[in-house]
Amino acid sequence: MIKKDRILESWIMVEHLSEGDISLKDKAILTMDDLQGQDFYSLFLHEIQKQKWNQRQKGGVVVYFDVFNFREVVAILREKYNLKPTDEDIRLGDKFSFALYFDRNLNFLPDMTFFTESAYIRYYKKVPHEAEFRKFEENLKNQLFQDFDETVRNPEKFNAAIQKELRRYGIDVENCRMQLLGNIETEATNLHSFFIDDLEKAKGIKTGNLNAYLYGNKEERRNLDSKKDSVNFHPHMFEQILQPKNYPLGRFPSNTEYALSLMQQVAVNLSIGFDNNQMRSVNGPPGTGKTTLLKDIFAQLIVQQAYDIAKLSNHFIEGTKKTIYFNHASIGEIPGYITENNIVVASSNNGAVQNIVNELPLSKEIDKSLFEELKEADYFREISNAKLSIEWLEDENGKKREELVKEFVPGEEKFWGVFSLEGGKADNMANILKNMKHIHKYLEEEYLPDQDIYKQFMKHYEGVKEIQIKTQAFADGIRAYQKCTKELERVCANYQKESGKKENELYAELQKLEEISQECRQQLEQLQTQLEEVQNKAETVRKNMESMTQCLQVYKGQRPSFFAGKKKKEEYRSRLNEITAQLVKLSDGDIEYSKQEKEINNNILSCQTKLESSTKKQEDLQRQFASWKRAKLDKISALEKRVHEYEKLRNDSEIETLDMNQEYDDLQMSNPWFDESYRVAQSQLFVMALRVRKQFLYENRKNIKAAIIVWGQQEKYLEQKPVIEAAWNWINMTIPVISSTFASFSRMCKNLKEETLGHLFIDEAGQALPQAAVGAIYRSRHVMVVGDPLQIKPVLTLDSNTLHMLGGHFGVTEKYLSASASVQTLVDAASQYGFYRKQDKCEDSWVGIPLWVHRRCQYPMFTISNMISYDGFMVQGMKKYGKTGWFDVGGTANNKYVAEQGEFLLQKLKEMSDRNPKILDKKEKDVIYVITPFSNVAYQLSRKLRKIGFTRYDGHGKPTNVGTVHTFQGKEAPIVFFVLGADHQSSGAARWAVTEANIMNVAATRAKEEFYIIGDKKLYLGLGCDVVTDTDRIIRQYKNQHPDLVDDQVHRTVLDVRAAETKMPVIDADLRRITGTVKYVGKGAKSFYAYVIGDDGKEYSITERIYSNMGPAAEVIQKGNKISFVPEEGKKKLFATEVKVDIQNGC
Q1: Angle at Cα 208 formed by Cα 207 and Cα 211, nearest 5°?
Q2: I need a surface site. Which of 37, 154, 295, 435 has the fewest CB within 10 A?
Q3: What is the DSSP-derived secondary structure letter of residue 366?
């Protein structure tokens, strides 16, 4: 596992390299052209005096030393680490080397000294480790502190100190700038990284969320694959998440006719407490309702807070000794279980931040049937629609007092309440405090308390809860029905299977037993015959024995007398022996027959027993089978009865149940269990929750006032962090949703420790650099990010090869440091619930909870996005057909800009604006966006289209309807033109633009109705990139199906581009000489050197050797001069040789 400090230090390095940006076009950035005789002191003091600051302003001046182009640093890194250039469209601007700060009296402010790491690399030609750079900074600050010691009101010493710094690094004053700051503590933050302090703090902080963010989820992932033919389809998981008891009780009061889609509801249910996970991500393709689901989550958190507030025994929160903020006055600490549900929204995209806070309180977003109820709840509606200000009035005694001014804007009320405000930077936080002051005044002077609201809320809460409980009981019944049906099917199937088997077994067994019985009966017949025969024979023997016995008795009576003769006596004895022998023989026969008779009787008895046993077994088997059959049939009958009862329950109800077996599109569009009446009840509960909140604020007016005081003077309470934390919680209680960009987040929360914020929601997380969110994440108890890594990636100032080198330098992987690394990708990895985009479940295909129902674009824009980015998983929520086409326009590119494409677009917009004047009407909403992958193309198009009044600008002078894709993430317009730019000479850049689907995906999904591509078809289709070939194929198929909805006709007559517009380089007689403009002149070791931007858009170096060999070099090579030169290509860079004044420029 990569060490935490290595990850953080790699991010710190990247942030250091982003520091020091300076725009030389900014009118507030002043040159030192008025410097007289190296008298810096007088120059600075004169500029300060011109500002006319009041006595309370903490104004001052900052001096930027040695301004250079960041390309120099990139070139050094490439040369030292053998890095190849890339075709990525990286914006490389100017930076300063170091900055010195002075207050309005020209006191040196050593703690604000700022030396850029880019300058360190430029000066010392190496990438330092964090400890090494920190030591260098410390030594420099000490040196500067000594140099500027005792320079106050001493112009001579002050000037000497400035000159010493110039000499230390050989800096020309022409490469220095200065800026006057009305508040030197806050106004210079744009030059520093906004994240380094939080990254440094994170090294010593341990929280579960920070650990999960850095190292991912350690538990088993839950794959929310909802396609029933997928091997990863697990309907039971959805059935558990979507049980009615897991639905929220609160809902944002938008149109109650529409329910969330299936996956939106899954995301909401998971986020409000389905499990114990504190960090999760939602992965939402364009137009899939990420903001909509956030609204419902916010509403549930507000309702939960209202419930917890209503249950308090004492609604006034008293302070304690540890929260005393003035004399004996203390600020109350809201219980942690209530503040845990506070809401903060953050994003790196300022537009996303503003979109959320501006949309939440819009009256037009509220269901008409609920608006009056919400209006009556009056969550400071007048304040939300008024122009608020604070005036300081002076009484007769000269004492000043604060006067709150509330001006009402005539017309329709735009907002329903002060529900969300933008925080972050100082001006926004001042506006929040201003709103709170007006709210406090309203609560003190106008609000009529409503103590009954707590009971009313609880009654309505229990009513909504009862609906949920009854629906859960119905769902339990449906589950029981489903279980019972499955059980019935199983039992019936088993019965059929077992019954046949048992009948066969029974028949076989009965057959076997019958055979035994038959055999026994046959044996009995035989034995009976034998018995009769033996009995007959025994009877004959016994009769013969009886006859012989009688004969013997008779014969014994004939015994000769004593005196009979010997012969007679011998005859007698002989006859007597003969009779006796016959009698003995008969007796033996009788015994034998008796024995045989007994044996036969025994055999008969045994056979009879066997026969009886066989008969009994047959009867038992038949009885057992009948009993089993009866039991099975009784069970089937009971199950059939229960199924019938459940079917009746289901058929009598109008509740839509969850059916995971329906077709994919229908499933995604579904939302089971609750109808519109429940959504109305949810919305009404949210409105009542706002009334509870308002009453709670009324009862804690003193705490609100204390919070205003404490937050406005935080420096007084730095040793009392609980006081500051309590103040923040009252601010967030008063303003339920506070948003901030990451750039301002750390400043807003600098005095809040870890896990003090409740719920952090990060919008457009795919655009945010991973290091940007660290401070926000470790300060929060719950984190949810929404975004899409398949849309725009974070904007980088370093190319992917340089990032890879830095990753190796610090020993971190591309997970943390790469062109694709973002807050979204890290939180996706930390989210237990999500989706594998690929069936092989590779790590980089895991994303957060997916949303699939798209409701923004018509066909074929939807089809393009769904095909190139989402593998067909998205479902079209609006079946409408728009217009499209690819205008095949090519030409020669100048830094990716093709003039023919610009001219074609201009003519096309003219034609369209003739038919629809709203296109050029600045009072109307944007009808058309012009989008391109490349910054120079965007710049050239914005200038060109300004000629016909198409280009619109914001307050800072930046185009709003022409730009790169990064400009338009989160926005939408009816029509989009996607200008590809590039030519065969810049095919590498073209390949970069379409190798991954992100750029085409965002461009196509900004268009609600019409999407047109302008580009060289042969060039882009020849790249062999799937993104382009799939897009072209979809447009061609759409043309076959809807020929009247495709426009791809290019009239070549409109491509008559003037030579001046092509900005092609002017070629001298030798055919190699080109023209360019001197951008920068610097002082080297022996002579001067310079950088030139050629009219071909490339940068050329004028080395010290070339410069010193020129006669009038100092006159010719001056910043801003137009020159001509012969380009030469070196191993690492391009060189300008044979430099001359550009005659055509009139020099």
Answers
A1: 85
A2: 37
A3: S
Pick the closest to residue 970 from 765, 813, 827 (CA basis): 765
Question: What residue type is assigned to position 135 of the chain?
Answer: K
Q: Is it true that the peptide bond before 128 is cis, omega within 30 degrees of 0?
A: no
Beta-carbon contacts of 878 under 8 Å, excluding residues fewer than 6 positions away, are 855, 858
Q: Tokens standing for 132? A: 């090494």
Phi/psi at 26 (5° precision): -65, 125
Cβ within 8 Å of residue 969, ≥6 positions away:
349, 351, 352, 764, 767, 791, 792, 1002
Q: Residue 423 has which token pair?
A: 């925080």
Q: How far is CA 557 from the centre of its chain?
A: 135
What are the DSSP calls for 830-878, one per residue? H-SEEEESSTT--GGGEESEE--EE-SPPBTHHHHHHHHHSTT--EESS
Which one, of 261, 279, 283, 259, lies nearest residue 271 by Cα? 279
Tokens of 834: 């999500």
What CA–CA distances, in Å, run from 789 to 14, 807, 833?
21, 21, 17
The DSSP code for 129 is: P
Tokens standing for 806? Answer: 């830095």
In 705-863 the beta strands, taken as DSSP E runs, fall at 737-741, 757-762, 780-787, 833-836, 846-847, 849-850, 853-854
Most distant CA pair in the chain: distance in Å? Answer: 200
Cβ-based burial of 262 (10 A; exposed 0-12, middle 13-18, buried ≥19): buried
Is there a contact between 759 and 780 (Cβ–Cβ < 8 Å)?
Answer: yes
> What sign for the dihedral angle of Cα 308, 311, 315, 317?
negative
pLDDT value at position 1068? 36
**Separation between Cα atoms, residue 1050 and residue 901, nearest integer Å:** 11
**What is the tens place of the pLDDT at every residue in 837-892?**
887 778 888 999 999 999 999 999 999 999 999 999 999 998 899 999 999 999 99
Whole-number Cα distances in Å, 859 to 779, 856, 1087: 43, 10, 63
Edge to edge, the sheet with strand 849-850 lists 420-422, 737-741, 343-347, 757-762, 780-787, 279-283, 849-850
- The angle subtended at Cα 906 by Cα 901 and Cα 909, nearest 5°, is 120
Is the pTM of the predicted complex or chain greater than 0.85? Answer: no
Q: How far apart are CA 1065 and CA 1088, in angstroms?
A: 26
* Contact yes or no for 819/796 (Cβ under 8 A): yes
Going from the C-alpha of 331 to that of each of 312, 709, 725, 987, 1098, the distances in angstroms are 18, 10, 10, 64, 61
Asked if residue 1005 lies in contact with residue 286, where contact means CB atoms within 8 angstroms, the answer is yes
User: Which residue carries 């060490």 as its tokens?
Assistant: 3
Question: For residue 340, what is the enclosing H or E element?
Answer: none
Please answer whether residues 774 and 202 qualify as being in contact, where contact means their C-beta atoms are separated by less than 8 angstroms.
yes
Instruction: Write out the H or E segment, with its range, that includes residue 579.
Output: helix 566-652
Q: What is the pLDDT of residues 248-265, one digit of tens each?
A: 999 999 999 999 999 999
Strand, helix or coil for residue 349: coil
Query: CB neighbours of 654 closer than 8 A, spacing ≥ 6?
Result: 675
Which whole number is the average pLDDT over 1093-1116? 76
1063, amino acid identity: K
Tokens of 764: 């457009």
**Phi-psi label, residue 940: left if phi above 0, alpha if psi -120 to 50, beta otherwise:** alpha
pLDDT band at 1080, cuts 50/70/90?
confident
pLDDT in tens, 931-947: 999 999 999 999 999 99
Give me the residue label for tokens 């990451």. 742
**Angle, CA of 42, 44 and 50, to the nearest 5°:** 100
Average model confidence (pLDDT) across the chain: 90
Closest by CA position to 751, among listed 703, 785, 719 = 719
